[in-house]
Design a protein that fits this description.
Elements: H1 2-22, H2 24-53, E1 64-71, H3 82-91, E2 95-110, E3 113-122, H4 126-130, E4 136-137, E5 153-156, H5 158-165, E6 175-178, E7 181-188, E8 204-207, H6 211-214, E9 230-235, H7 241-258, H8 260-263, E10 266-272, H9 284-317, H10 320-328, H11 333-368, H12 385-410, H13 422-465, E11 477-482, H14 490-505, E12 510-516, E13 526-529, E14 531-532, E15 544-552, E16 568-572, H15 573-579, E17 589-592, E18 596-604, E19 619-623, E20 632-639, H16 644-657, E21 667-668, H17 669-712, H18 714-723, H19 737-751, H20 757-763, H21 768-779
Parallel strand pairs: 3-8, 5-7, 15-19, 16-18
Antiparallel strand pairs: 1-9, 1-10, 2-3, 2-6, 2-9, 4-7, 5-8, 6-7, 11-20, 11-21, 12-15, 12-20, 13-15, 14-17, 16-19, 17-18
Helix pairs in contact: 1-11, 2-9, 2-11, 2-12, 9-12, 9-13, 9-17, 11-12, 13-17, 14-16, 18-20, 19-21, 20-21
Length: 784
C-alpha cells in the first residue's frame, strides 16, 4: 500500500512537471510573482533572525545578563563607573562573575599602512564570563588587569588575524602598533565569536587598565562620576534575573548611603543579555519595527498568492474536460485534488528556491544600505537552518494557499456536466470569473493599504526634513580627528589641532572652520550633571544635560577663553527658560564638568541635538580649551561650494602634519544628516518599495483576469459586433455556442449578405458546428 502511494505521488510529480513545462508562460509568471513575495519575506526574516533570534555566540547564553546604571529621572540603561563595577562584582553573590567592557576606535599599524579598527577595552575576566577560549594563545591574565598602563597586550579577532596578518600561526608574541604604541599579541579568538552585539564586531581587545592608551577620551578609573563601562555577567546556577535585580537594588541603596554625593539617585538594572544584543538594554523598539516589516512583506506575499490563484483558476477552467474525464474514468475527488495540489506545490517550491536566491541578494543590499558613519556595522544575514526552514515552510504554505482555490472551484458539485453540456462550462466560467474578480479586488485593496502607508512615511520624512536643525546643512563637511591613534600628550595635541584649523581655514574653498568634541544629531553625545545656583530640582528631575565643547571663531566663545581665564559657558534658549524663567541668565553661575563654576556668557538659539523630531531640551556649550582634553574631536568645515572635493584637500593637510596618523572617513553635512533621519527614512523606503511591488503584482493580476475574461467571451463579443450593425428589429442574440447552434439558420437569414463578416470573426473561436454555419453563410451555400 505504501509502495502504491509512493508510486502515485511520483506519477503526480511527473505529470505536474510536464504540465508546468507545457504551460511555460503561466509557469514563468507564477514563479516570478511568488518568488518576489517569498524572497521579500525571507530577506526580512533574515534580518529578524540576525537581530533578534540567533543565539549569542557564548556559552549557555540564557545565563548571561547585562547590568546597567539607572539614573533617577534619566536613562534606565546607562553606563557604569569603574568603582561601581568593582562593588557590583565583589559585593553580590548572585553572579558567578561580572565583567566590564566598552567600545572604542583603535589605530592599528602594519606593513600595509595604518587602519582604524573597532576595539574593545575589557576586564581580564571578559572571555571567561562568556565562556570563550581563544583558538590561539590565551586570554588576559588577572595581573594584566591590576595596574594602569603596565601591560600593553592585545587579543585579535579571527577576521583581523586573517586579513591583516595572513593567518600567521606565529602571531602570538609578536608586537603590533595600537594607537602608536607597541602591544604584544597574546591570543586570537575563534571565528565563531564576534562579541555580544549583533550589529558590531570588534577587531581588537585590550585590558581595561590600558584605557588611557586606548580610549579617545580621558577617564578616571577611581571616579564614581565618570561612567564609561558596560557590564555583562553570568548568573550562578539557580539564580534568576529577578533575584539578581533585587540584590542589585539593595547594593545601590547601600552605595547611595556610603557615597551620597556620587551615588544618590543611582540604581542598577539587570536584564537578559539577549535583550541587550542591540546595545540599548531592550529589543522592544527593533522588535516592533521588525514586526511591522514582517506584516508588510506578508501582505506582499498574500497579494502574490491571490495573483497566482487567479492565474491557476483561469488555467483550471480550461482543464474542465480533462478533469471531468478523469472522474468519469474512476478517479476520486481526492485523487484529482491531490494532483492539482501537487502541481501547486511544485510551482511554490520552485518559486521558493528562486526567492531564496533573491533574498540573499536583497538582505545583503539592506545591510549595505547603512548610513555613512565610522561605526563598522556588521550584521550577519547569512542563511542558517532557521532561515532555510522558514523559506521551506513558507513555500509549502504558499502552495497550499493558492492551490486550494482552483482545486475547490474545479471540484464543486455539478462541474462534471462539462462532458454533456458545453453551456455548463460557460456558466462555470462566469462563476470562476466572479471568484477571480473578488481576488483582484482584495489584491488592489491590500496594495493600496501598503501604498497609503508608504505615503504617510514619506510625508513624515518630508516634514522632518523641513525642521530647522539650528545649523546650516547645505554645504560643509565633518572630518573626525582622533589623536588617540598617536602618542600625543595634551600640549602636543592642542598644538596639532590649532595648526590643522589654521591650514584648513586657508584653503580657497573654505569659508570657516570649527572644532567640536560632539556634533548635534550625532550618535555619541556628551553629558554633564549640572548644579544651578538658586535652583532647587523637583522630585525625580534629571539634571543631566547634553553638552558640547566648541571652539568657534567669533561666535560667543572666543580664543581668549583658555585655561587660565574665567571658566564660561553658553546655554540655549530652552535651558535659559527652564532654570531662569523670566530672568536674564547672563552672568549666572553653573557648576559642571567636575564641579567647576562657570559663568553664563551667552544664549544661543535652540537646535536639534539628538534627532530632528525631538522636543526642545537644554544644551550646554563649553570652551574646548577650558575643559578636559579630548583626543577625538570633529573638524567642521563650511565650504563655499560643493564640499566633496574639499574632503581630499583637508585630508592632505592633515597628513602633512602627521603622515603616520590614521584618519576616519569624512562625510559631507548632507550625508551627516542621514544619520538623524535614518529612523524614518529606512521604514519609508522599505514600505514604499514593498508597496510598489504589491501594486505591480496587483496590476499583473488585473491584467490576467481581464485577459482571461475576454478570451472566455470572444464569441459573445463577435456576435455583439455583428448585432450592432444588423437591423434594430432583429432579436436574435447568441450568448453561448448552444444558442448559436439553435438559431444559426434564423440568424443567417437576418444577416445574410454584407453582414456575414461578423461570422468570420465568430467562427474563428466557435465550436465545429458554428464554424460550419459561418462558412456556409459566407459562401452563399445557405441563403434566406
Amino acid at each position: 500500500k505504501r509502495e502504491t502511494s509512493v508510486l502515485a505521488l511520483w506519477q503526480d510529480i511527473r505529470f505536474g512537471s510536464r504540465m508546468l513545462l507545457r504551460h511555460r508562460a503561466f509557469t514563468f509568471v507564477a514563479v516570478a510573482s511568488l518568488a518576489l513575495g517569498i524572497g521579500a519575506n525571507t530577506a526580512i526574516f533574515s534580518l529578524v533572525n540576525a537581530l533578534l533570534l540567533r543565539p549569542l555566540p557564548v556559552e549557555d547564553p540564557d545565563r548571561v545578563v547585562a547590568v546597567f546604571t539607572s539614573y533617577q529621572g534619566g536613562s534606565r540603561y546607562g553606563i557604569t563607573s569603574y568603582p561601581d563595577y568593582k562593588d557590583l562584582r565583589d559585593g553580590l553573590d548572585v553572579f558567578a562573575d561580572l565583567a566590564a567592557e566598552t567600545y572604542t576606535p583603535l589605530g592599528l599599524a602594519g606593513v600595509s599602512g595604518s587602519e582604524v579598527l573597532l576595539g574593545q577595552v575589557v576586564t581580564s575576566n571578559y572571555f571567561s564570563v562568556l565562556g570563550v577560549q581563544p583558538s590561539l594563545g590565551r586570554s588576559f591574565l588577572p595581573e594584566e588587569d591590576a595596574t594602569p598602563g603596565s601591560h600593553p597586550v592585545a587579543i585579535l579577532s579571527h577576521r583581523t588575524w586573517e586579513r591583516r596578518f595572513g593567518s600567521d600561526p606565529q602571531i602570538i608574541g609578536q608586537t603590533v602598533s595600537v594607537n602608536g604604541r607597541p602591544f604584544t599579541v597574546v591570543g586570537v579568538v575563534p571565528e565563531s565569536f564576534s562579541g555580544t552585539s549583533v550589529i558590531v564586531a570588534p577587531d581588537v581587545w585590550v585590558p581595561v587598565m590600558m584605557a588611557s592608551q586606548a580610549l579617545t577620551f580621558s577617564v578616571q578609573l577611581d571616579g564614581r562620576v565618570d561612567p564609561f563601562l558596560n557590564l555583562i555577567g553570568r548568573l550562578k546556577p539557580g539564580i534568576t534575573v529577578s533575584q539578581a535585580q533585587v540584590a542589585a537594588q539593595g547594593l545601590a541603596a547601600t552605595l547611595a548611603r556610603e557615597y551620597p554625593a556620587q551615588n544618590s539617585g543611582k540604581s542598577f538594572t539587570v536584564v537578559e543579555a539577549e535583550r541587550n544584543r542591540i546595545g540599548t538594554g531592550t529589543t522592544e523598539g527593533i522588535a516592533g519595527f521588525m514586526a511591522v516589516l514582517m506584516g508588510v512583506v506578508g501582505l506582499v506575499l498574500l497579494i502574490a498568492c491571490f495573483n497566482v490563484a487567479n492565474l491557476s483558476l483561469a488555467k483550471a477552467t480550461g482543464r474542465q474536460r480533462e478533469i471531468a474525464l478523469r472522474n468519469s474514468l474512476g478517479a476520486s475527488r481526492w485523487r484529482i485534488t491531490r494532483q492539482l495540489l501537487t502541481e501547486s506545490m511544485l510551482l511554490s517550491l520552485l518559486a521558493g528556491a528562486v526567492g531564496l536566491l533573491m533574498a540573499l541578494w536583497a538582505a545583503d543590499l539592506l545591510v549595505a544600505a547603512r548610513p555613512p558613519i565610522a561605526l563598522p556595522i556588521e550584521i550577519d544575514v547569512s542563511p542558517d537552518p532557521r532561515v532555510l526552514s522558514f523559506t521551506a515552510l513558507l513555500s509549502v504554505a504558499t502552495g497550499v494557499l493558492f492551490g486550494l482555490a482552483p482545486a475547490i472551484q474545479t471540484l464543486r458539485p455539478g462541474q462534471f456536466a462539462a462532458l454533456r453540456d458545453q453551456g455548463q462550462v460557460l456558466r462555470h466560467g462566469r462563476s470562476t470569473s466572479r471568484v477571480q474578480s473578488s481576488l483582484v479586488a482584495l489584491q488592489v485593496a491590500l496594495s493600496l493599504v501598503l501604498l497609503i502607508s508608504a505615503g504617510l512615511f514619506v510625508r513624515s520624512l518630508r516634514n522632518i526634513l523641513t525642521v530647522d536643525p539650528g545649523f546650516d546643512l547645505r554645504s560643509g563637511l565633518v572630518f573626525p580627528v582622533n589623536l588617540g591613534f598617536g602618542q600625543y600628550d595634551e600640549d602636543e595635541g592642542r598644538l596639532f589641532l590649532r595648526e590643522l584649523v589654521d591650514r584648513v581655514a586657508s584653503l580657497p574653498a573654505v569659508r570657516s572652520t570649527a572644532l567640536a568634541a560632539f556634533l548635534p544629531l550625532g550618535v555619541v553625545h556628551g553629558h554633564h550633571e549640572i548644579v544651578i545656583e538658586g535652583y532647587e530640582p523637583r522630585a525625580n528631575e534629571s539634571m543631566l544635560v547634553k553638552r558640547n565643547m566648541a571652539l568657534v571663531r567669533g561666535r560667543g566663545i572666543s580664543e581668549q577663553d583658555v585655561e587660565n581665564t574665567q571658566p564660561v559657558a553658553i546655554i540655549n534658549e530652552t535651558m535659559a527658560r527652564r532654570y531662569w524663567p523670566g530672568e536674564d541668565p547672563l552672568g549666572r553661575v553653573i557648576r559642571a564638568d567636575k564641579g567647576i563654576s562657570r559663568v553664563v556668557v551667552g544664549v544661543i538659539k535652540d537646535g536639534k541635538y539628538g534627532a530632528l523630531d525631538e522636543a526642545p531640551q537644554p544644551y550646554l556649550l563649553l570652551p574646548m580649551r577650558q575643559t578636559t582634553f579630548m583626543r577625538r574631536v570633529n573638524l567642521v568645515v563650511q565650504t563655499a561650494g560643493d564640499p566633496q572635493p574639499v574632503i581630499e584637500q583637508v585630508l592632505a593637510e592633515a597628513r602633512r602634519l602627521d603622515p603616520s596618523l590614521p584618519f576616519e572617513n569624512a562625510v559631507t553635512l548632507p550625508q551627516y544628516l542621514e544619520l538623524s533621519v535614518g529612523n524614518v527614512k529606512t521604514p519609508a523606503f522599505l514600505v514604499g518599495a514593498f508597496g510598489l511591488l504589491a501594486m505591480v503584482l496587483a496590476v499583473i493580476g488585473v491584467y490576467g483576469v481581464t485577459s482571461y475574461a475576454v478570451s472566455q467571451r470572444i464569441q459573445e463579443f463577435g456576435i455583439g459586433v455583428e448585432r450592432g450593425v444588423t437591423n434594430d428589429g432583429d432579436r436574435h442574440w447568441c450568448r453561448a455556442s448552444a444558442g448559436v447552434r439553435r438559431d444559426a439558420g434564423a440568424v443567417g437569414v437576418s444577416v445574410w449578405g454584407k453582414h456575414a463578416r461578423a461570422y468570420n470573426l465568430c467562427s474563428r473561436r466557435a465550436d465545429p458546428l458554428v464554424r460550419c454555419a459561418g462558412r456556409l453563410l459566407c459562401t452563399g451555400a445557405v441563403g434566406g
